[in-house]
Amino acid sequence: MLVVKNINVFYGVINAVKDISFEVNEGEIVTLIGANGAGKSTILKTVSGMIRPASGFIEFLGSDITSVESFKLVKRGLAHVPEGRRIFLNLTVQENLDMGGYIQSSSEVKALQQSVYERFPRLRERRNQIAGTLSGGEQQMLAIGRALMGRPKLMMLDEPSMGLAPILVDQIFEIIKELNKAGTTILLVEQNARMALTIANRGYVLETGRIVLSDTAKNLLVDDSVKQAYLGG
């Protein structure tokens, strides 16, 4: 479904992502783990067209998307739930969902909103509430719901558990598993490596902009170097 081949990304003279290659197959949950500054978020931004790679190529559903603009990728079925949620804080819940469905017809928007509200009943209760007044967990639900309004085939989530209480972290990861079971392929960036690997099929470990290890999530959970660096020994 997604093939990333030999991409390099620079911030000025800093080579933030160094010759990265990986793939995500349809139906999988794939996670990228690594320390802060390893390049995980930069990779997602590059895949979603927010940053242009200096070299390499990105293929999605058999087409080269290396230079495709972000809004066109949404139409192709690629959704990006960014770090920090990035919802429209001054709009209501329903208005945020409307924004997520901008590529759909008005009748499709209504149907998709109902689907989001069925998945997230709390959002239905808060549909007329200003998004900036929601709790952190509710804002994350809204960010995911807004992405679902585009009918994504692949959803990329960047640090979905950031800043959430442990009980809400469990809830968000259950939501990710449910989305995957319903047919959405997932590419997950997450500081909570143990939780990410617990729900993922495969994982890639990044250090200073390079992939240093890749394997099934099950094997990474018991790998000594991964346990020591990311799983608390």
Question: CATH class of the largest domain, anyone?
Answer: Alpha Beta
Strand order of the largest sheet: 6-7-8-3-9-10
Percent of residues in helices comes to 25-40%
How would you classify the quaternary structure? single chain
- Examine the coordinates and then state which fold CATH places here, giving the name of the CATH topology of the largest domain: Rossmann fold
Tell how many strands the DSSP assignment holds. 10
Low-confidence runs of at least 5 consecutive residues: none
Describe what is shown at a glance.
By secondary structure, this protein is an alpha/beta fold.
What attributes characterize this protein structure?
233 residues, alpha/beta, Rossmann fold, 2 domains, six-stranded mixed sheet, four-stranded antiparallel sheet, globular
Describe the structure.
There is one protein chain. The protein is an alpha/beta fold and 233 residues long. The chain folds into 2 domains: 1-74, Rossmann fold; 77-185, P-loop containing nucleotide triphosphate hydrolases (Rossmann fold, 3-Layer(aba) Sandwich), CATH 3.40.50.300. It is built from 10 helices and 10 strands. The strands form 2 sheets. The protein has a 6-stranded mixed β-sheet, with helices on both faces. The chain has a 4-stranded antiparallel β-sheet with strand order 2-1-4-5, with helices on one face. Strand 1 and strand 2 (14-24) form a beta hairpin.
